[in-house]
TrEMBL record:
<dbReference type="InterPro" id="IPR002586">
    <property type="entry name" value="CobQ/CobB/MinD/ParA_Nub-bd_dom"/>
</dbReference>
<dbReference type="GO" id="GO:0016887">
    <property type="term" value="F:ATP hydrolysis activity"/>
</dbReference>
<dbReference type="GO" id="GO:0051782">
    <property type="term" value="P:negative regulation of cell division"/>
</dbReference>
<protein>
    <submittedName>
        <fullName>Flagellar biosynthesis protein FlhG</fullName>
    </submittedName>
</protein>
<dbReference type="InterPro" id="IPR025501">
    <property type="entry name" value="MinD_FleN"/>
</dbReference>
<keyword id="KW-0547">Nucleotide-binding</keyword>
<feature type="compositionally biased region" description="Low complexity">
    <location>
        <begin position="1"/>
        <end position="21"/>
    </location>
</feature>
<feature type="domain" description="CobQ/CobB/MinD/ParA nucleotide binding">
    <location>
        <begin position="33"/>
        <end position="247"/>
    </location>
</feature>
<dbReference type="InterPro" id="IPR050625">
    <property type="entry name" value="ParA/MinD_ATPase"/>
</dbReference>
<keyword id="KW-0969">Cilium</keyword>
<feature type="region of interest" description="Disordered">
    <location>
        <begin position="1"/>
        <end position="29"/>
    </location>
</feature>
<dbReference type="GO" id="GO:0005524">
    <property type="term" value="F:ATP binding"/>
</dbReference>
<dbReference type="InterPro" id="IPR027417">
    <property type="entry name" value="P-loop_NTPase"/>
</dbReference>
<keyword id="KW-0067">ATP-binding</keyword>
<dbReference type="GO" id="GO:0009898">
    <property type="term" value="C:cytoplasmic side of plasma membrane"/>
</dbReference>
<keyword id="KW-0282">Flagellum</keyword>
<dbReference type="GO" id="GO:0005829">
    <property type="term" value="C:cytosol"/>
</dbReference>
Amino acid sequence: MGDQASSLRQLLQQQQPSQKQRMGDSQTPTCSIAVLSGKGGVGKTNVSVNLGIALTELNYSVLLVDMDIGMGNIDAMVGTYSTMSMADLLRGSGDVSTLIQPSLYGIDIIAGGSALAEELSPDEDVVQLALGELEERFSKYDFVLFDLGAGISKDRVPVLTSVDRIIGVTVPEPPALTDLYSALKWVHHYEPMIPIQLIVNKAVSEKEGLAAAERIQAVAKRFLQKEVELLGVIREDPAVVSSVKAQVPFVCRLPKAMASQAVRGMARKLTLQPSAEEYRPSFIQRLSQRWGGKKRA
């Protein structure tokens, strides 16, 4: 299994064009997306990785940022072991020039790293300096995806309220749906106008996935007066499990699998979404304002 994975990575590395060749319309503002879940174990990070890769297959440039600080594993999932991470950046010890790392699968990543919670309460000046250095780099991508840790907390509010849209990932079980709704309600409290989309993962059938989505949509509309769009359903697929074991993203390892086709459909939907207005401040500019305390948090 390890030899097969290694061979596939080598083949992809030979075939993969540079990130600069994969840019979409360079005049279109970067689309920033936060991917969250109400609880762990729903496959959120795996979805983020494969969705990002599916976007690169459509010739869009993608940066995937691991915001599960201290517990992140995106770099391992794409076979890239970073020496610098978001944890280093927030401590004021990161070098932005080496923070963004290419992967074998077309997406670039920023690793989450490992750090204790108390290490991640950086001085505001450190944060503002780091954001300034990231501004130009982020603007070179068509999509920047932020993979957040499970659940919700106040320290994530600045990121969640600065992105262009949010994707919530859940499984059909009632506890997971309840936890995701709680997370979406929290976000809605701080930024009621932000578009929210939904992915139902690990559904036994399309019918089960659609029913789960309808429950989230119904309560969001009733209690928040919020429309939640279904981005798609990913059914239970042995290809996902075997690909995780092989440490190769399933859209690359088994491109014809049900899960791969579902994720590619979601990527196509994302490319059809309205672009961020050119006059609107960039993600980094909005985040800088919120982290600086200019907006309630």
